[in-house]
Amino acid sequence: MQRRLVLKNLGLITGGILILPSCNFSEEMATIALNKLQITKNKEVLLTDIIDTMLPEDTILGGKSVGVHNFVWIIMDDCAKKEDQESFVNGLDLFQLKIKKTHNNSFSKLSPNEKESSISTILENKNEDKDLIDFLTTTKNIAIWGYKNSEYYMTEIMPYSLVPGTFSNCETINNTLKINTNA
Predict the structure, then answer these.
(1) Over its length of 183 residues, how does the chain's per-residue pLDDT go in tens digits?
(2) Of 28, 42, 96, 111, which has the fewest Cβ atoms less than 10 A away?
């Protein structure tokens, strides 16, 4: 009878020891669960700020409110090659270092105009590190793609109709109507 109890406890302890290394108890853990990319909360916040600068909020919702930053992380985690993932994360780190070096401050503490001009300056400068340029270009392209395919955009900004109507009548295009580019 004691042997069964000892074997059961030994199995539980062994299972716990095997699972423990995969548990991350750090406070810097990101809020989004990714399979391949290992990111921290700081990297997640930085990417959110960059996307909020690229797709700002005014009379319509911006990229941050729509959740485009999560879309970018998921696309990079699920669809990008390992080299592209490494280049993306390296570019994010280089961006953070570049901003600290240029402005002596973090990106989130800059004014909206400074944020916008920083991104534009880096993209226009052809002498920048390739990973940094690729990171910003990739982020911009995926963010626009994610925003234009979001539920908010497809229902509020450019309503998408599954069946656009009859095809027998010719219709004059009205410039005041919102026409979805995907329709």
Answers:
(1) 688 887 788 887 887 777 766 555 555 666 777 888 888 899 999 999 999 999 999 999 999 999 999 999 999 999 999 999 999 999 999 999 999 999 999 999 999 999 999 999 998 987 888 899 999 999 999 999 999 999 998 888 887 766 666 566 666 767 777 766 554
(2) 111
Domain that holds residue 119: 29-154
Number of folded domains in the chain?
1
Q: Does residue 173 fall inside a structural domain? A: no
Q: Flag whether 19 is in a domain.
A: no
Three-state secondary structure readout of 22-91: HCCCCCCECCCCCCCCCCEHHHHHHHHHHHHHHCCCCCCCCHHHHCHHHHHHHHHHHHCCHHHHHHHHHH
Is residue 1 a part of any domain in this protein? no
pTM: 0.76
